[in-house]
Write a structure and sequence with these properties.
Blueprint lengths: L1 E6 L7 H14 L4 E6 L26 H10 L2 E9 L2 E2 L1 H8 L2 H9 L9 E8 L5 H17 L2 E9 L12 H15 L2
Parallel strand pairs: 1-2, 1-3, 3-5, 5-6
Antiparallel strand pairs: 3-4
Length: 188
Amino acid sequence: MNVLGINGSPRIGGNTDIVLDKALEGAKTTGAKTDKIILNTLRFSPCQECENMPDDGNCIVKDDMQPLYKKVDQADVVILASPIFFGSLSAQTKMMIDRFQCLWRAKYILKKDISKKKRKGIFISVEASRRDDFFMNAKSIVKNLFATINAEYRDELFCPGIDDKKSILNYQGLLKKAFELGKKVGEP
């Protein structure tokens, strides 16, 4: 079982990163192989909606997204973690999602199902406010990504009212939920 964690927060070691690590730790206890990508450490451009994109679902822009595409394709589980910024996903997360436009086009416009592997999708999100509508907005975008990459939206963990860096450590119940979530999806 390959579990890929994607951290969309600009804060390494912050709340989103900590919760994602807990979920990956839970997955490891089941024997799953885990990998984590921190989007803010990658160098990639936003989608350019290239006119000459191939019909095979691949992106022609060569940057740090290319290895990420491979890791997503190899994953049995994708855990996407993002803080809420301005009522939705972080820019890093949205930029990565937009780069799957090439695959979306192949799947939904050209009717080619390039990624045949079925996988599980988990969404983790942290926000300073307590606005459920912000989580729901972000969730709708993540569900579109998961559908595009053939990931069944399996579960979610929303962490409201968490602001200061590392303040999630004061919410052991949420960290336990993240661990259990990772454990649950890491099982074959």
